[in-house]
Amino acid sequence: MDPGLIWLIFFAVLGGGIKAVDRAYDDMDLDKRLALLLTLFLAFLWVYLSLGSAMSATILGAIFLSSLLTGKIDNQAFKLSTLIVAAAFLVEGFEIMVLPLLFLTFLGYVDEFANGYADRNKLHGHRTFIFEHRFGMKVGVALLYAISVLDLMHVLALYSFDLAYEAATTKRISYYRAALNRVWGWT
């Protein structure tokens, strides 16, 4: 299998897994013990990807920092993963691109703030699509690719992370399950 495809799959697993853990604590629709086990796997996957390249460490570092700054690390599982990632950073010292990290962290912070604002004020629909789907960091990585700071594989890696994260919502999983059941008789 192509190493680039494996990289994209790893980022997608990370994004979908993080949303699944979040759902275990926020929506209470998954077992918290399973979420803790999943968190251990995801934290080590995060570290593995961060050690793989400076671009990966920069993108994941921006997600980490923007989540930390906006208070999204709000449950036991996320606190455990924060400890693992921070310890790995201190021990291994991920190679990070500082200016892109600051730029993407700022955009991630704005994304999280805008998304929280839309949620708190029950603003949904086509007018708040950008807020609901956190477009700042997506546009940011595309801009960094356009000026040759990031390569295309890492732009696609963030998009696969984010698509898996977005797809792992309760509403969407129910929709996909129903669609698969109608088409192929899957449950």
Structural domain tally = 1
Measure the end-to-end span.
29 Å
Along the chain, the helix and strand elements come as HHHHHHHHH
Low-confidence stretches: none
Sheet with most strands? none
Percent range of helical residues: over 70%
Count every helix, treating DSSP H or I runs of 4 or more residues as helices. Answer: 9
Average pLDDT taken over every residue = 86
Radius of gyration: 17 Å
The backbone outline, from C-alpha atoms, is globular
Number of strands: 0
How much of the sequence lies in strands comes to under 5%
User: Helix/strand-derived class?
Assistant: mainly alpha
Give structural notes:
By secondary structure, the protein is mainly alpha-helical. The chain is 79% helix and 0% strand. The chain is built from 9 helices and no strands. It has helices at residues 3-26, 32-52, 54-69, 76-92, 98-120, 129-132, 135-146, 152-167, 170-184. α2 (32-52) runs parallel beside α4 and α5 runs antiparallel to α7 (135-146). The longest helix is centred in the first third of the chain and has 24 residues, at 3-26. The radius of gyration is 17 Å and the shape is globular.
